[in-house]
Write a structure and sequence with these properties.
- With about 500 residues, the chain is of the alpha+beta class.
- It has three domains: about 210 residues, no CATH class; about 110 residues, no CATH class; about 160 residues, no CATH class.
- The protein has 13 helices and 30 strands.
- Strands 2, 3, 4, 5, 6, 7, 13, 14, 15, 16 and 17 form an eleven-stranded antiparallel sheet that branches. A five-stranded antiparallel sheet has the order 24-23-22-27-26, covered by helices on one side.
- A hairpin with a 2-residue loop joins strand 2 and strand 3.
- The longest helix is centred in the middle third of the chain and has 21 residues.
- The relative contact order is 0.13.
Length: about 500
């Protein structure tokens, strides 16, 4: 529903004044971030100690020493506007009655800086995102210009185990003296939290410095039993990747800086944390990888299967000098895995799995099965009789494949191909059975009712291979050697945060 201009101006007068949808900050030279933990209409928080709740002004504060339930008091109302223009400003959080503000990350003078931008809206407002999007579409305005107007005055009702009710305006800062868990997740988190209303949902964020965040990431990405040098390499890669994710600003409209899932990096607080994890983070404190003065996107994956791949090929982007692909297992060095025969030969080659954990061994060679009818259904086709592999990357991963049957369909992208076959570990595979090489040099498979698939590797194949990092560390390589192998031409640095 569209609101009139007078009401819209009233709404602008009560725009959020606590500094935008999210607020990373720098404390004593350290970067503090809001990490998304929970997003729902109601939240249950379990604790064994006590917690302090404070409103944004810092004036109203209460202590609670039991489990608490949090919900939005009354009926939450969302308002959406259409962005007219966005102006970069100094990060001063000054009040205004004619714009909203939000912070974002930028790379300036070879450092990461937190900036602020002012958002000026057209003189109209909508009560639903659908209405705003419809208006934008009808007026040929990009859907990215639809903006969820952050509102003050949303009241949170907080109930303790005795039934006592407390009321706070969003956002609320919670400081706990013991670990907390949310909605029986089984995961525990310590320290500071920000609880706010985003749209008609409660958003719970962990406010944590970057180093402590990494101590909740490393073990969930490579395992807490990895050799120390591999853990150090993972810590630097994860720190670098986090900085690059901040620069993408993907969550600047969501009310937090980074999510806690694979879209950013898996973060589970103190789960599986041990002394080696803490040592890996502490001993590499502040180190990121850079190339030509800029933080790199130190992407990584579980297992390349023999060679890592080019980011340009896997994600169809521009060439990235430090992500062009390297040999991970020496026996694969002289094979051209973009050729079908070499890829098949390599997949059928046994590799040394001595000293590997079960998940590492599982990535070395794997088999899967899928019914042809299921594959056809996944592709939206009524029948399939043939598959032609159109392109493989330098790691051997299939980049494009064409299916023929009731009609023809081409699937491009390693992730989309894996999904089509029922979520395969990687797209480095071949289909058992009859095939031929056509005049274009492509493998053409005649498909039966049941397909048996044989492959290697796990994940997209770009950047650091975690199985390879583990192998190198067991062979005596230190973390610097591991990182320079997988990200050639990059440099380690610690002077990347803009304190001003």
């Amino acid at each position: 529903m569209r609101l009139n201009c007078l009401l819209f101006n009233i709404l602008l007068c009560i725009l959020l004044t606590w500094g935008g949808l999210y607020a990373a900050e720098i404390r004593n030279g350290s970067l503090w971030l809001e990490i998304s933990l929970h997003h729902s209409s109601q939240v249950n928080i379990r604790q064994t100690g006590s917690a302090n709740l404070t409103d944004d002004s810092g004036i109203y504060s209460r202590d609670v020493s039991s489990d608490i339930d949090i919900r939005i008091s009354g009926s939450p109302v969302s308002h959406y506007g259409i962005i007219d223009r966005v102006v970069t400003a100094e990060l001063d959080y000054s009040d205004s009655d004619d714009y909203s503000s939000r912070s974002f990350f930028a790379w300036e003078d070879s450092t990461l800086a937190i900036k602020e931008e002012h958002i000026y809206l057209l003189d109209m407002s909508f009560t639903t995102e659908e209405a705003a999007t419809s208006f934008a579409r009808e007026n040929r305005i990009a859907s990215t210009m639809v903006y969820n107007v952050p509102m003050s005055g949303s009241t949170l009702e907080i109930t303790d185990s005795s039934g006592r009710k407390l009321y706070f305006e969003s956002p609320v800062r919670l400081r706990a003296n013991s670990p907390l868990s949310f909605d029986n997740s089984g995961l525990e988190y310590s320290g500071e939290f920000i609880i706010k209303v985003i749209g008609n949902q409660i958003q719970v964020n962990h406010l944590i410095n970057l180093e402590n965040y990494l101590a909740g990431v490393v073990q969930n990405e490579i395992g807490n039993g990895a050799p120390l040098e591999a853990l150090k390499a993972q810590a630097v890669a994860a720190r670098s990747h986090a900085v690059s994710m901040l620069l993408y600003n993907r969550h600047k409209n969501d009310g937090y800086d980074l999510c806690n899932g694979t879209h950013c990096q898996v973060y589970k607080g103190e789960y599986l944390q041990n002394a080696n994890i803490l040592e890996a983070v502490l001993s590499t404190g502040g180190e990121i990888l850079s190339y030509n003065g800029r933080a790199i996107d130190a992407t990584y994956h579980s297992a390349c299967g023999g060679k890592t791949d080019s980011s340009q090929l896997i994600w169809r982007g521009t060439p990235t000098p430090y992500l062009m692909g390297v040999t991970c297992i020496d026996d694969a060095a002289n094979l051209d895995l973009s050729r079908e025969e070499d890829a098949r030969r390599w997949i059928n080659t046994s590799t040394n799995s001595s000293g590997m954990s079960s998940w590492e061994r599982a990535s070395q060679t794997w088999t899967r099965s899928i019914r042809l009818s299921t594959l056809a259904s996944n592709l939206g086709l009524s029948s399939i009789s043939r598959a032609e592999i159109l392109a493989r990357g330098q790691s051997g991963r299939i980049l494009s494949i064409r299916f023929s049957g009731s009609s023809s369909k081409t699937v491009s992208g390693e992730y989309q191909i894996r999904r089509a076959f029922g979520s395969l570990p990687s797209s480095l595979f071949f289909i058992d059975g009859r095939y031929s090489i056509n005049s274009n040099g492509n493998a053409v498979y005649e498909l039966g009712a049941n397909l048996r698939i044989k492959g290697k590797g796990s994940g997209h194949g770009v950047g650091m291979c975690q199985v390879g990092a583990l192998r190198m560390s067991r062979d005596g390589a230190d973390y610097r050697e591991i990182l320079s192998h997988y990200y050639p031409g990059t440099l380690l640095r610690t002077d990347w945060l803009n304190y001003e």
